[in-house]
Amino acid sequence: MTELSLRAARPEDLDALCALEQRCFSSDRLSRRRLRHWIAASNRELLIALRDGVALGYGLVLLHRGTRLARLYSLAVAPEARGLGLGKQLLTTLEAATTRRGRLYMRLEVAEDNQQAIGLYQSLGYQRFGTWNDYYEDHQNALRMQKRIRYVPENLQANRVPWYQQTTPFTCGPAAAMMAMASLRPTQELSRGEELDLWREATTIYMTAGHGGCHPVGLALAAQRRGFKAQALINRQGPLFLDGVRSSEKKALIELVHERFIASAQDNGVTVRYQDVSQDDLARWIARGAMILVLISTWRLDRKKAPHWVAITAIDEECLYINDPDPGDDQSALDCQSMPIARSDFDRMSLFGRDRLRTAVVIENARAD
Fold first, then answer.
1. Any idea of the CA torsion for 178, 304, 101, 147, to the nearest 10 degrees?
2. Can you name the residues that pair with 132 across neighbouring β-strands?
3. Measured between alpha carbons, how far is 11 from 321 in angstroms, rounded to an integer?
4. Cα–Cα distance, 157 to 289 (Å, whole number)
5. Which DSSP helix (H) or strand (E) runs through 117?
6. Domains of the chain with CATH codes
7. Where is the N-acetyltransferase domain (predicted)?
8. What is the pTM of this model?
């Protein structure tokens, strides 16, 4: 009998993959359409295991753009091949391939009653870090597990930050601010009403398209009103986001809102610093217990070049870690919590627009020095 061979899945494997999906899973199956999509996609590793031309298993890992995080999306082993170590062989090969593509962590979800799979993952170093209730079609809970697949030093400092999903396309700033404030004060409200209140307080009125986003000084003022100490850092003076608006009337309104924010900051003791934001600065603030909101360009995440606020949860020698309030099409809430971003990637990601704006909001408990 020939040995098992593993190789990248090809279009001609579609029928075999569909057959494995039907044989190995009773629910939450990937459709033929989705399998065809993943065969053709570039942001994945998809391996098929064969013996004598017969497919006995496959593994699919998703590689999310702009992060160093990978997700084991599906691992299937045919009934007749179980007990041969194929699951372990598939997963370790996928880890190696994923590491070569610059990912640092692998995450997965597994049904909490699937002891065989849980045992496999634990034997390979995966650790449980949470539970996702009512995750599967049959309402079973899923264990959340993670493994560091490329060594990086332990986090220098980490904040426990709850995750909140923005409920509109334009409220990433309020969602990130609520996460940051709730990390510092567990009683902080996390609700759609609070999300919209924060947006109304901090909006720039207009953006390139749709509703306005949030101004860093507006977010700092909103946090200060809620009893926190806040400051805004901006790498240049003058009104922000003007390059995305063509109408002279809209530009005038954005300029007026900017001026009002700056005046209100002066009146209310909110510091506005006109300086670049270095990663050393971020590390120092996190070490003293502060929470930081950073404006990024989503180009490296979704190729849309939109301004987007995220909350930094930790930083170490290799990565910054962010809570992103907006899951993408192929992401779940699990993927958006403490997402690792390589430092070199973050430097480019945290510059926005033709003016190369870099800005952050630092939020601390009011008793901080």
1. 20
2. 142
3. 36
4. 9
5. helix 115-123
6. 5-148 (3.40.630.30), 157-365 (3.90.70.10)
7. 4-150
8. 0.70
- Is 294's pLDDT higher than 60? yes
pLDDT of residue 153: 42
Residue type, 313: T
Instruction: Tell me how far CA of residue 50 lies from CA of 7, 29, 236, 247, in angstroms.
Output: 8, 21, 58, 60
The Cα–Cα gap between 58 and 5 comes to 11
- Give one word for 210, left, alpha or beta, with left for phi > 0 and alpha for psi -120 to 50: left
Measure the N-to-C terminal CA separation of the chain; round to a whole number of Å: 71
CA distance 220 to 359: 12
Query: Residue written as tokens 């949030």?
Result: 214
Q: Are 70 and 61 in contact (CB under 8 A)?
A: yes
- DSSP notation for 312-336: EEEE-SSEEEEE-SS--TT--GGGG
Q: What are the residues facing 106 on neighbouring strands?
A: 70, 147
Q: Which residues contact 231 (CB under 8 A, 6 or more apart)?
A: 220, 270, 271, 272, 273, 361, 362
Do the Cβ atoms of 113 and 141 come closer than 8 Å?
no
Q: Is 272 left (phi over 0), alpha (psi -120 to 50) or beta?
A: beta
What is the rounded distance in angstroms from the CA atom of residue 83 to the CA atom of residue 52? 19
Place of tokens 């090809």: 10
Q: Which tens digits make up the pLDDT trace of 338-353?
A: 888 888 888 888 988 8
Question: Beta strand pairing status for 359-365 and 291-297?
Answer: antiparallel
DSSP state of 132: E
The answer for residues whose C-beta is within 8 angstroms of residue 147's C-beta and 6 or more apart is 95, 105, 106, 121, 124, 125, 126, 127
Note the pLDDT tens digit of each residue in 61-110. Answer: 999 877 788 999 999 999 999 988 999 999 999 999 998 888 888 999 99
Tell me the three state secondary structure of residue 72: strand
What are the C-alpha distances in Å from 25 to residues 17, 31, 188, 300?
12, 12, 42, 34
Q: Which two tokens stand for residue 127?
A: 């650790």
Cα separation, 163 vs 137, whole angstroms: 23
Taken as a whole, the chain contains a residue count of 369
